[in-house]
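Dear colleagues,

As part of the handover before I leave the project, I'm documenting each prediction I ran so the next person doesn't have to rerun anything. This entry is a single chain, and its sequence is reproduced below.
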Amino acid sequence: MIPLPGKTIAEKIFSAHSGTDAHAGDIVIADVDFVMGQDGTSPLAIRALERMGVTEVFDPKKVAVVMDHSSPSPIEGVSALHTMMREFGKQTGATVYDVGEGVCHQLIPEKGHVVAGDLMVGCDSHTCTYGAINVFSTGVGSTDGAAAMASGKLWFKVPDTLRVDYNGELKPGVFSKDLILYLAGQIGADGATYEAIEFHGPVIDALSVEARMTISNMAIEVGAKAGLMDADDKTLAWFEGRGEKTPTAQNADADAVYARTLEFDTSAIGPQIAKPHAVDNVSPIEELEGTPIAEGVLGTCTNGRLEDFAIAASILKGRRVHPDVRFIVAPASRQILLDAIEAGYIQTLVEAGAALVTPGCGPCVGTHNGVPSDGENVISTANRNFKGRMGNSNSFIYLGSPATVAASVIEGKITDPRKYFAG
């Protein structure tokens, strides 16, 4: 008998959740472990449920709505949507994360709603973030999200998997954000459309769970359905104390079959910058040094975690933000804000000149909290730099790591952060 080949992480998770021997290309009906929406999409899902005549969710403990994109509300229309979400929570028992709690993509894993081996969907494209903790998580439209909230099930086409191996080592001043920007520059915005990406290699092994989330968060920026990683001891330790659910790690088999494999030597990768107006418009920072900036943003679901604050604070300690630059800081969650206060990072950043805003999406989505003016350049740790993304189509958004943002706000221009790590 010819032995069957092994499975990828995606194939294993879909097999476990569909009760089938699932392989790439199969169509499956799968049980979902959690469903989430944010304040831009939950109201649409709630209205879809109303149209379906559904007044209950399949399991209130497995559904949450999060007010994070426009939070606190900047206008009366959003206030009405927030009220709708609060009423939805009272009616169904679903969890409601109100203003100030943070970004959905930090809160859902932080609160222990998902663990390794889970399958979850969220009404937000960056739901792929949780792939870093071995969860097949993916963004869906609000109507699909409503169907999942009602039934606990959803159909999927099991994706092919692109394997990306990061070998070598990270040089000082280079971070996980640089690795995912580099990948976007190499394969383009449609380089992994409807594929799952598995990230492997010694560099991934050495990263913290927080740093891994930065990479998985941006898998959608190359078109991927999910950005998955094995659940190692570091991952399993991360779940401790976050809830009652038991992780069921679904790691890739050694003989898993991949659509293709890419290998990168990270020793040769320096800080990367995504230039306006596309995430895959990436260049080494050397080509952008000296570009003047008017605003810097540290935060968002990509880089608003404690480790990101530590990196920025290490550069800004004892220094001042350039007088011509506004520096906006948005923690990814209330807990991260508290931890950053306790660690002294917030004091360092505020003393340097940062403007601290409510834990949440901050200025990333462009509804409030730092809309740039016409012609202004912004350097941001966010995940998108599309034209108009931050609320002004006449501004220019550059993306970089927390270190790059910190170095740049000091000097008032895009600056290579490696000078702050020398010696």
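The first strand starts at residue 27 and ends at 31. The CA atoms of residues 38 and 155 lie 21 Å apart.

All the best with the project,
I.
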